[in-house]
Amino acid sequence: MSTLSSTTAATPLPAEWAATVTTVVMPTYNEAANLPTMAEALMALPLDGLRLLVVDDNSPDGTGDVAEQLAEKYNEPGRPRVGVLHRTAKEGLGRAYAAGMERAVAEGAAYVVQMDADGSHPAEKIAEMLGVALATGAEVVVGSRYVPGGTLSDAWKAHRKLLSRWANAYASSILGTRVRDITSGFNLWSAQALHAIDLASVDSAGYSFQVETKYRALKAGFTVMEVPIHFEDRTVGESKMNLAVQLESVAMPWRLRSKALRGGGRGGSAGGSCSAGGARSAEHRR
Ligand SMILES: Nc1nc2c(ncn2[C@@H]2O[C@H](COP(=O)(O)OP(=O)(O)OP(=O)(O)O)[C@@H](O)[C@H]2O)c(=O)[nH]1
Ligand SMILES: [Mg+2]
To answer: Could you tell me where the Gly residues compositional bias lies (predicted)?
Structure first.
């Protein structure tokens, strides 16, 4: 099965596409040791329109200050490249994303990329994800571990791989979606799609934000595509995953489904997804 990654990864985007204002929104909590490396990798990409917005929840390790130093380092007169949204308390990944993505769009982003700060997501794939969105008109492009060509870190033990697979199958089967990596945290969104899904009303405080937002996009009739990525394990710093967050992730698909059944959903069925590798056909529902 052919994949776009093999043909487009090394091909630079046309200059006009590379100039598209694309903001990487990066939530951080105690990521001071990771953030400079992340910023360096992003700022080195051949994407003139790329910006980074760090959303820090007042990290005790001083990540917010590190982010300010990076803004000073990379911002140029008339060319803002790094911004920082300081929030006062740790409210969860989902809340940080909702605030950051809203800010990014308000500041003029045509596309927004969600990305962890711990090195798990490959920065060099952003150009490909943007290229897929611009070439196909897809409003959501998922960096996917579970389409052909997608891979997981060897550091992940078998039980963790199984758990991740299971979490995807669990959410997808309850919600009736066909996105293969609906739990992925590495996604590119058009500003139009973000506006339509109404970030302010998203229920998820934690990681289920990834599932809820994709589900809302599908229900609103937007096309979701998936491109394969390699997912690395965190090597520096600590995971913020905890029991409360996991329980929310278990409950959320049921909550979303019952809300949709009660008529609180946003329009059509949520099935459509399309692999950039050509594994599926796109289903537009507008
Ligand atoms: N602002 C903010 N960022 C958060 C919060 N929780 C997690 N993050 C960030 O969200 C990203 C993902 O968190 P991780 O702890 O790596 O979670 P994960 O990738 O699902 O779990 P691991 O596989 O264990 O790394 C990281 O950049 C975190 O710093 C939060 O409450 N607020
Ligand atoms: Mg992580």
So the answer is: 262-275
CA 281 – CA 274 distance, rounded (Å)? 6
- CA–centroid distance, 230 to ligand 2, in Å, is 13
pLDDT per position as a tens digit, 77-92: 999 999 999 999 999 9
How many CA atoms lie within 13 Å of 281's alpha carbon, on the beta-carbon side? 2
Pocket of ligand 1 contains residue 242 by CB under 6 Å: no
Residue 14 token pair: 């046309």
Q: Kindly state if the Cβ of 121 falls inside 6 Å of ligand 1.
A: no
* Domain regions of the chain by residue span: 4-275
Ligand 1 pocket check for 57: Cβ under 6 Å: yes
Which residues is 114 bridged to in the sheet?
A: 25, 187
Categorize the per-residue pLDDT at 278 as very low, low, confident or very high, splitting at 50, 70 and 90.
very low
Taking a C-beta distance cutoff of 8 angstroms, is the pair 186, 117 a contact? no
Residue nearest to atom 18 of ligand 1 (CA): 239
Sheet holding 22-28, edge to edge: 82-86, 50-56, 22-28, 111-114, 187-190, 140-144, 224-228, 274-275
Compute the distance from residue 116 Cα to the ligand 1 centre, in Å.
Answer: 7
Judge if the beta carbon of residue 125 lies within 6 A of ligand 1. no
Q: Are strands 187-190 and 111-114 parallel, antiparallel or unpaired?
A: antiparallel
120 lines ligand 1 (CB under 6 A): yes
